[in-house]
Design brief:
The structure holds two protein chains of two kinds.
Chain A lengths: L4 H31 L9 H10 L11 H20 L15 H21 L3 H32 L4 H10 L6 H17 L18 H4 L5 H26 L13 H25 L8 H23 L1
Helix pairs in contact in A: 1-9, 1-10, 2-9, 3-4, 3-9, 4-5, 5-6, 5-7, 5-11, 7-9, 7-11, 9-10
Chain B lengths: L3 H10 L5 E3 L5 E4 L5 H11 L2 E9 L7 E9 L2 E9 L5 E3 L8 H12 L2 E3 L47 E6 L11 E7 L2 E8 L7 H5 L4 H8 L7 H16 L5 H29 L3 H22 L8 E2 L2 E2 L7 H25 L1 H7 L7 H7 L3 H5 L7 H4 L20 H25 L17 E7 L4 E8 L5 E7 L2 H11 L8 H8 L3 H5 L1
Parallel strand pairs in B: 2-5, 6-7
Antiparallel strand pairs in B: 1-2, 3-4, 4-5, 8-9, 9-10, 11-12, 13-14, 14-15
Helix pairs in contact in B: 1-2, 5-6, 6-7, 7-8, 7-14, 7-16, 8-9, 9-14, 14-16
The chains are: A mainly alpha, B alpha+beta.
């Protein structure tokens, strides 16, 4: 029985990523409503939206190829896979051993590559524009994400996520300069990677300004539901990753099933706080001009590099 | 009212060539057709602006067609007309003198079927290619109740060629709930080379419809030329009719009209500021400004029975009046709106990320603003001191004088800021109008304009100067009602102001102009 516990925990985590991601998205949207002085439709609204989309017919362009039809599944699968390997409710996940931090970034890159292809597949102008913008942002965001996580890797002497989180979780809390730099860089890249203001606007209706929305403009029904759901999971995963890397205290080190309920509660609290932070940033900022995004992500990269340097200079 | 233009024209063309026509609201001069272009040259030299140009089918009078042009300099509006041959109506283009004539004349060619000699771009405008080539809806021979046959046709876009140049077709149906219009961008990467707008998707045949309505009923139609500008359009129509009929409007009605006009201006400016915030994803500002607009609309509903104030203005006066205690209600409401507005402006003006988007976006140079003859907010944000409330100061604006706010940078920020200043000034105007509100009747009986008489008016709607010209036919009904929404000239400005920008900035720049599709397409 005991040997099945890791598998059960893994299953729990996958279920959590799947079904709690819309809740986090709903929480973010509800908070946004409140900061703008509006009544929110409730934190459960993303679930209703998904159910609605799943029950709708698919409208497919005549010239849509297999890439267009295949991408939602691939995107959904790759993001879910990423959700299975990061330590959210336990550091002792069986799947975690299969992939390290570099593989995690690569998983996101695969999904992004295909969604960009799908954006161009139907041949509309907006899809192509969205794809080209997404690629520009990706080419700058991915190095920044890697640099950030490498800084944490140096700290934990490993690129395995589980080992990193385990190591940091065993330390007493103290502010190390390299981790502070890495955390700041991570927040900046999180906003870019998950398509939030000030980099992208997830609720815009202006085709010409769209980035992520431009690529998925032709999707409908079940496909759109999968893409939207994957987007919510990505937000969930990125915030969870941030929490795991920078405030891992509370994530169980062992494989005892009894720890899981408490771990979920602690995680929920942390995520709710991080979401509040994201909402505050989004409320106070306008979307930046697209050619400012390289400066923004360049700053993230630079801060991450400073974190790495400060590790060598101050902490070795 | 000065008469600089009048004297300049008389001096150049000699008195014997000029016939002054019966006309209310402005001076109308008929010149022989060969002098029509010459008159535009004289106007250009005198520094006047071409405000409108339109064709009239005068066959009910036993004449042929006529072409009209309205010029403006300072407080003077001068109308110049020339009679055209009934069989082969043609006149020389004014585009050599005035760029603004470009669209006016394309519209005259498309809808009235007059030939404009020397026009650089004879492609149809407003009338789309699936209409028969020889269908000219504004002619009396065209039966508006008969269905229009549908034909095949293609629209010739201005082509762009070169390495890496591609086209982005946007619209006419957009992802958001806005009016329909097609924008064709030619771009290299994110950089815009050229933008060609194509409108006419909401052409409803309003000008033709006027001709089948009574003078009273037409006021309702005028109030629906552009739904967000219903007060100003209805007022422009009412004033044109009253000037043609020689109807004196009671002072209280005039002041109530001023009140309604300023309320419409404030509410729409607040909505535009909200929309500017929304287009740069500053959702907080969007909802807060929108909330203020909503406050005003609800008060409109309570006091005047309609949120947008439709049908409040009728020829001869107004159909609404201030109830007991309404003055206090308005004063309280405006006080609350302005207090909240002040707090919001501190946030708006202090937000670096917002400034970064607004400053320097969609620069519309002052020289271009002068050349294109743009009006309203777009003109005042680009250094042009134009405001029809000052150019045509009908009561209450002769005593309650609006402040004109002219900015010079011509970017999205300055167009936004003109609105900010006008919201503040609007609160002052409303307070002063309420304080000085005369007592008495709210409408006078309207006698129908005499056969052959004409009336002209200029009203500053919230977008800018609205012109209306009506002509009574031989039967005493409406022979022609010309409406010129500010958008008819300001759409050209959008095309010119976007050339230095990149594709994702277009929605913001477009919103900073916020032209009306409906008012343009008629």
């Amino acid at each position: 029985m005991r040997e099945a516990f890791p598998l059960l925990i893994e299953a729990c985590q996958i279920a959590l990523v799947l079904f709690a991601a819309p809740l986090l998205a709903g929480w973010v949207r509800a908070l946004k409503c409140w900061t703008q002085g509006r009544t929110s439709p409730g934190v459960l609204q993303p679930y209703r939206n998904l159910i609605k989309l799943f029950s709708k017919d698919i409208v497919l362009a005549h010239n849509a190829s297999w890439v267009f039809r295949f991408t939602p599944y691939l995107l959904f699968g790759s993001v879910l896979m990423a959700g299975a390997i990061i330590p959210i409710i336990s550091v002792d996940l069986p799947l975690s051993a299969t992939a390290d931090i570099i593989a995690l970034v690569a998983l996101f890159a695969i999904g992004r590559f295909f969604i960009a292809l799908a954006g161009m597949d139907v041949g509309t102008a907006f899809g192509g524009m969205g794809s080209s913008r997404e690629m520009m942002i990706a080419s700058l965001a991915e190095p920044a994400v890697l640099m950030t996580t490498f800084t944490v890797s140096l700290f934990g002497h490993t690129t395995s996520l589980s080992e990193m989180v385990r190591f940091i979780g065993q330390q007493n809390f103290f502010l190390s300069p390299s981790m502070v730099f890495a955390a700041i860089a991570f927040v900046l890249t999180l906003l870019a990677e998950t398509g939030r203001v000030p980099v992208d606007n997830p609720v815009t209706h202006l085709e010409l300004t769209m980035i992520h929305e431009g690529m998925i403009l032709e999707y409908s029904g079940r496909y759109l539901a999968l893409v939207e759901w994957a987007g919510m999971m990505k937000l969930f995963i990125f915030t969870s990753l941030g929490v795991a890397l920078f405030v891992p205290w509370g994530i169980p080190q062992g494989d005892d099933l009894m720890d899981i309920p408490l771990a979920v509660l602690i995680m929920a609290g942390k995520l709710a706080l991080v979401a509040a932070g994201i909402v505050l940033a989004e409320t106070g900022l306008a979307k930046m001009r697209i050619f400012r995004v390289p400066e923004f992500l360049g700053t993230a990269f630079l801060i991450a590099t400073l974190g790495m340097l400060s590790h060598f200079i101050l902490e070795m | 009212m000065t008469d600089t233009l009048h004297r300049a024209l008389v001096a150049d063309l000699r008195e014997s060539n000029i016939i002054e026509l019966p006309q209310g609201g402005a001076t109308a001069l008929r010149v022989p057709l060969p002098y029509f272009v010459r008159s535009a040259e004289v106007m250009k030299t005198a520094g006047a602006r071409l405000a409108a140009e339109w064709g009239v089918d005068e066959t009910p009078f036993g004449n042929g067609f006529a072409v009209w042009a309205a010029y403006n300099l300072g407080t003077e509006y001068l109308l110049v007309t020339a009679a055209l041959d009934a069989a082969k109506p043609a006149f020389g283009t004014l585009t050599g003198q005035y760029l603004a004539a470009f669209r006016f004349e394309r519209q005259i060619m498309s809808l009235m079927g007059l030939t404009v000699k020397g026009h650089p771009d004879p492609r149809p405008w407003i009338k789309h290619e699936d209409w028969p080539q020889d269908a000219y809806p504004l002619r009396k021979t065209c039966d508006a109740s008969a269905p229009m046959p549908r034909v095949e046709g293609t629209y010739q876009w201005i082509p762009a060629v070169g390495e890496g140049v591609f086209e982005i077709p946007v619209g006419p149906v957009h992802a958001g709930i806005i009016e329909p219009g097609h924008f064709r961008f030619q771009a290299v990467g994110e950089k815009i080379l050229n933008l060609e707008a194509r409108l006419g998707y909401v052409h409803k045949g309003i000008e033709k419809r006027f001709e089948s309505l009574s003078w009273q009923d037409a006021a309702k139609l005028a109030g629906r030329v552009s739904g967000d500008t219903t007060v100003a359009h209805a007022l422009a129509y009412a004033m044109a009719v009253e000037s043609a009929a020689g109807c004196a409007v009671p002072p209280r009605a005039q002041w109530l009209r001023g009140l309604l006009l300023e309320r419409e201006r404030m509410a729409n400016h607040l909505a535009d500021l909200a929309a500017l915030c929304n287009d740069v994803a500053f959702a907080f500002g969007y909802y807060q400004f929108w909330n203020l607009r909503e406050t005003m609309l609800r008060m409109n509903k309570t006091l005047f029975g309609h949120r947008l104030l439709m049908d409040a203005i009728v020829p001869g006066g107004v159909s609404v009046d201030l109830a007991e205690g309404a003055k206090e209600d308005i004063a309280l409401e405006i006080h609350g709106v302005i207090a909240e507005f002040k707090r919001l402006m501190e946030i708006y003006d202090d937000n670096a990320s917002l400034k970064d988007r607004l400053y320097g976006s969609g620069v519309f140079p002052q020289s271009a603003a002068f050349d294109l003859g743009v009006v309203g907010i777009a003109a005042r944000a680009s250094g042009q001191g134009l405001d029809a409330r000052l150019q045509n100061p009908f009561p209450p604006y002769d005593t309650v004088v609006p402040k004109m706010h002219v900015l010079h940078s011509g970017d999205a920020h300055s167009r936004g800021w003109v609105r900010v200043e006008e919201v503040r000034d609007g609160a002052r105007l409303i307070a002063e109008i309420l304080a000085g509100m005369p007592t008495g009747a709210t409408s006078a009986p309207l006698t129908a304009p005499a056969a052959g008489s004409a009336g002209f008016s200029a009203v500053e709607g919230w977008r800018g100067e609205i012109l209306c010209w009506v002509q009574a036919g031989p039967d005493g009904g409406i022979n022609r009602c010309m409406v010129r929404d500010p958008s008819a000239v300001n759409w050209l400005a959008l095309e010119q102001s976007i050339k230095q920008d990149m594709v994702p900035d277009f929605p913001l720049v477009n919103k900073s102009f916020n032209n009306s599709y409906s008012g343009n397409d008629l």
